[in-house]
Write a structure and sequence with these properties.
291 residues, 10 helices, binds adenosine-5'-triphosphate, single chain, five-stranded antiparallel β-sheet, six-stranded mixed β-sheet, alpha/beta
Length: 291
């Protein structure tokens, strides 16, 4: 496996507060990696250390197999939060892109790039008159200057209406073609729809990381709706796991019928046995509460 980003024991402290706690990131090349966590989990701090805006307290980072060296690091396209990042509101969209490309010393076809992100015909419009969705798109255009192999987008779905979220999702998938994309977000359900891989951060710790497909194709899960206090012991004594929300994972030779027999024989009153499909939000909350 080739990694776009690989960190070992990456840690960032602010005085006594550990914002990022010894995380081993593995972002495969070509992945759409959803970097997920609630407010204050440590996402932005991690990203800032990768971008060289913060020095890690300890640990190492490799980008595309090379140790991170800020004087010679590969181009990383980045979009900060607060829709799309900061712009010159009195300048046009195209001029905003030109200012950025000038600073990077990279030529840009501003109207062409704006077309790619769905801002055709907006090149000469002043950014001060842009909606949240347009600013997000402009922020993504700016992150694509120089066609970077790695793009990091902070909350690209924030502040968008349902239609805006939908079209942003398809734009992200389209733009991720041929590069690695990291999407930082606390909108778990939304990112689940576009990501190929996820990393879940809670209190600075990486509580899970890996391909989403592996989670979706895992053992079947059934929610047991029951108020019986004997349920946890009965389930666990049969060697099964029970989540705080009442989900039982059925490994190997277990079926819903077999689980049902177990509960009947133990005289557990059950209101319903509901087969579950994988839900990232629940998975996240289970992992966080278990951490
Ligand atoms: N410059 C700083 N000085 C002190 N503490 C900081 C600093 N920057 C971040 N922190 C703390 O580090 C922790 C992680 O913050 P961070 O911004 O990385 O979280 P986040 O996951 O990006 O959250 P959000 O989704 O709200 O942006 C928080 O407790 C935050 O208060």
């Amino acid at each position: 496996m080739s990694w776009a980003i690989e960190s070992h024991g990456l840690t960032k402290r602010f005085k006594r507060h550990v914002a990022v706690d010894a995380i081993d990131l593995r972002v495969p090349e070509g992945a759409i990696y959803g970097f997920l966590g609630s407010n204050g989990a440590g996402k932005s701090t991690t990203i800032r250390t990768i971008l060289g805006l913060r020095r890690p307290t300890s640990g190492s980072i490799h980008l595309f197999g090379q140790p991170l060296d800020h004087r010679r690091r590969p181009l990383i396209g980045a979009m900060a939060d607060s829709p799309g990042g900061a712009f010159y509101d009195h300048l046009s969209a195209a001029d905003n892109l030109r200012v950025m490309s000038g600073a990077l010393g990279i030529a840009v076809d501003a109207p062409g790039l704006l077309d790619r992100v769905g801002l055709s015909g907006k090149a000469s419009q002043k950014v001060g008159s842009f909606s949240t969705g347009m600013r997000q798109r402009l922020g993504i255009a700016r992150a694509l200057i120089g066609d970077p192999a790695l793009v990091i987008l902070d909350e690209p779905l924030n502040g968008l209406d349902p239609e805006g979220i939908r079209s942003m999702r398809s734009l992200l998938v389209e733009l991720a073609e041929g590069r690695t994309m990291i999407i930082c977000s606390h909108l778990l359900g939304e990112v689940e729809k576009v990501a190929t891989h996820i990393g879940l951060l809670a209190n600075g710790k990486l509580v899970h990381q890996g391909p989403l497909e592996a989670l979706r194709s895992g053992d079947p899960v059934v929610r047991v709706a029951s108020r019986s206090p004997a349920l946890p012991d009965t389930v666990r004594s049969a060697g099964l796991s029970l989540s705080p929300t009442g989900d039982v994972t059925l490994p190997g030779d277990w079926s819903i019928a077999k689980l049902n027999r177990l509960l009947v024989e133990a005289s557990i009153d059950v209101d319903a046995l509901i087969p579950r499909t994988f839900d990232l939000e629940e998975f996240y909350h289970d992992r966080v509460s278990a951490a």
